[in-house]
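Batch job 17 of 40 flagged for manual review because the log was empty.
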Amino acid sequence: MTALFALATSLMWGLADFGGGLLTRRTPALTVVVVSQSIAVAVLGAIVAATGAWSEAGPQLWFAVAAGLVGPVAMLAFYKALALGPMGVVSPLGSLGVTVPVAVGLALGERPGLLQFAGIGVAVAGVILAGGPQFGGAPVQRQAVLLTLLAALGFGAVMALIAEASTTVTGLFLALFVQRVTNVTAGGTALYVSVRRGGRALPVDGGMQVVRSALPALAFVGLADVAANGTYAMAAQQGPVTVAAVLASLYPVVTALAARGFLGERLRGVQAAGAGLALVGTVLLATG
């Protein structure tokens, strides 16, 4: 079940990243984050009310609050790093966030078997290569590298924190709700500050009409991201965090394949090799 939940996480995170990437081509990234997460808050709020999940409230929800604060910071750092580029460096470095939950699992005493250790190494290498690393070309700005490493640390921290935020299914609904409310609060504050400083909240062409027409896609991005956090938490509770984290971090492969299937983008040789290694690593982890 750990492998199943973790692979479902990769699928949903990969598709959410693909959809979010498309949306940010026309709409400011902060607006995409705030609107998509607001939709997720509304849906999760209804689920929490229907299931009586409020009864699960406790000190562990502070982990959800922390995840909600760290997530937007990591995402904004990642978007800024992508703007500084090149993507061939930023994307693979961003995948290094998997080391955070893996390190947490090892620190807590988890000891994967030999095959699983091999699978971790192969899968992580595959994820990095699937991002299409750039081995030559213009020098990379130090700021881009630092921002990417900050984003990777944040993404990994969110994975580790959300796994500690609940121990039951109804508690998980509440934890995800709290995380998303925190996301919207932090993202909304950042958007307000950005607008006050002269930034834009709406697309230059089309304005609010573009946002309205994109609501179904925004809803998909927000809900897929929430679902991915939920399945990851369940994967981490069902089995070793070291295995769950690596399998859940295969989402760059999904994003690359989605770009190939929907946009006709051709995979570079290094990306195809990375996807293959990621699959080999998955088999080793699942069978180890």
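Reviewer: the log was empty due to a logging misconfiguration, but the result itself is present. Residues 59 and 165 are 9 Å apart (CA to CA). Unflagging and moving on to job 18.
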